[in-house]
Structures are given as structure tokens and as C-alpha cells.
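Researcher: We plan to redesign the surface later, but first we want a full-length starting point. C-alpha cells attached.
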């Protein structure tokens, strides 16, 4: 038996505001092996984005443990943690966070730039991924010249460019029309699977959730398996 790629153990998250404590997550535990995918559904404000941030090493849990490839990222110092995040985790957001002044290829290479000039191998991988998501002819275009679905597909390629262990997507199809959403969803499910990458998608789309291996619902601070 190999270790799970991702483990969340008894995650609890409390936000402290000036006037009160807000308990957002309680006793959240699950684990995932390489190549598995999972959907998280739940009402607005239930803590879905908070959980993704915790799993993505962006925000420490109040208590509980996250392990990615056996490593607790919150035990690393700030520099190590930033490097770990950049190399091991791919993020896809609803509003894609592409840089407007950079073209499609440059945006896809963004995670690689943290390490200096991208190697030829990484450039070739970026080009292959863009081809894979149907954007080969758009590599020199700016984000403003793309449709919403195309931008989201750039975000998919960018999230995968450094071969992360885990891809985290927060409502990736939330702003798209049905046809574009289906397109993005298909690529989002196919490519990580081919590469044995763990994929977690927060989504309101029942059809996307139903295409995934497992479904969990976040409600009243708890994460429960619903399918
Ligand atoms: P979801 O993504 O499911 O809509 P969020 O994770 O964004 O939910 O938020 C969960 C709850 O935590 C909400 O009540 C939100 O207001 C609160 N919250 C999120 N971030 C913070 C923060 N930095 N400080 C205080 N409260 C927060
Ligand atoms: Mg959210």
C-alpha cells in the first residue's frame, strides 16, 4: 500500500473577527489516492473555498493536519511552503486570474516563471497542454481576445504545467454557458486522470459532480459523503 496523495485529518477552521468567532469547518477528514477525483458541493458560505485554501497550503487550519505526498505543508517555513505550493499544487479559479498583459502561452507558463526562465521541456509541455485543451492556435492571443470558456481552459493548462500532485478547482465552470462548461469539465476530468493527478472540484454543477468519482457535501461545518 502506498500512502494517500492527500490526507485531511480532523480539520477545524475558526475565523476570528473583531466581534465573534466563526466556526467554518469542524472534523473534516478524508483522503485521496493518486489519480482520484472528488466533487465538493454545498450552499454558499458553507466553507468550500476555505477548505480549498487550507488544502492548497494558502491558509493554515485552526487545528487538524493536512498531508500532501506525506508532507505537512504547514510545518514548512514560508519559503519552503511557497515552493511546495508552486510545485505540488495547481489552482483553477472561477475568475481564472490570468494576467491581462500576457499572452496565452505566457500565462500558462506562469507557475514555471517562479523558478526563473522556463526550461525548453516545460515550454514544450505548456504547448502540448494548450494543444490538448484546444488552444494551439491561440497561444499568442491575450486573455481579452478569448471567450470565458477559452480563458478557463488556459487556467486548466496553467494549473497542470508543473505536473502538480493535486489540482484544486473552485467553481471552474460557474461563469460559463452550458456548452463551454461541458467542454471545460471534460478537459478538467480527463487530463489530471491521464497524469495520475488528484483533482478536487468545488461546483454547483450537478452534471459535473455526477461525472466525478466521489461527491462530498459541506453543510453545517461538516463534510459528508453523498455519492
Ligand atoms: P463558500 O466558498 O462555501 O461560499 P467560504 O469558504 O468563502 O464559503 O466562506 C465560509 C464562511 O467563512 C462564510 O461565512 C464567510 O463569510 C466566512 N469567511 C471566509 N473568509 C473569512 C475571513 N477571512 N474572515 C472571516 N470570515 C471569513
Ligand atoms: Mg466559494
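Model: Full-length starting sequence:
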Amino acid at each position: 500500500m502506498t500512502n494517500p496523495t492527500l490526507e485531511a485529518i480532523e480539520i477545524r477552521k475558526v475565523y476570528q473577527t473583531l466581534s465573534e468567532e466563526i466556526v467554518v469547518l469542524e472534523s473534516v477528514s478524508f483522503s485521496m489516492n493518486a489519480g482520484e477525483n472528488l466533487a465538493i458541493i454545498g450552499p454558499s458560505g458553507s466553507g468550500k473555498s476555505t477548505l480549498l485554501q487550507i488544502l492548497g497550503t494558502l491558509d493554515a487550519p485552526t487545528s487538524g493536519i493536512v498531508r500532501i505526498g506525506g508532507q505537512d505543508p504547514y510545518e514548512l517555513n514560508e519559503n519552503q511552503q511557497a515552493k511546495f505550493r508552486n510545485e505540488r499544487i495547481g489552482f483553477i479559479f472561477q475568475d481564472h486570474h490570468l494576467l491581462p498583459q500576457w499572452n496565452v502561452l505566457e500565462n500558462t507558463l506562469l507557475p514555471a516563471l517562479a523558478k526563473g526562465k522556463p526550461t525548453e521541456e516545460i515550454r514544450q509541455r505548456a504547448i502540448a497542454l494548450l494543444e490538448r485543451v484546444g488552444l494551439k492556435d491561440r497561444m499568442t492571443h491575450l486573455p481579452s481576445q478569448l471567450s470565458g470558456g477559452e480563458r478557463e481552459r488556459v487556467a486548466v493548462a496553467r494549473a497542470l504545467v508543473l505536473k502538480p500532485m493535486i489540482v484544486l478547482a473552485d467553481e471552474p465552470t460557474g461563469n460559463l454557458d452550458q456548452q463551454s462548461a461541458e467542454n471545460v469539465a471534460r478537459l478538467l476530468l480527463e487530463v489530471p486522470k491521464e497524469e495520475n493527478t488528484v483533482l478536487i472540484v468545488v461546483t454547483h454543477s450537478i452534471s459535473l459532480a455526477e461525472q466525478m468519482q466521489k461527491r462530498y457535501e459541506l453543510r453545517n461545518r461538516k463534510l459528508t459523503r453523498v455519492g
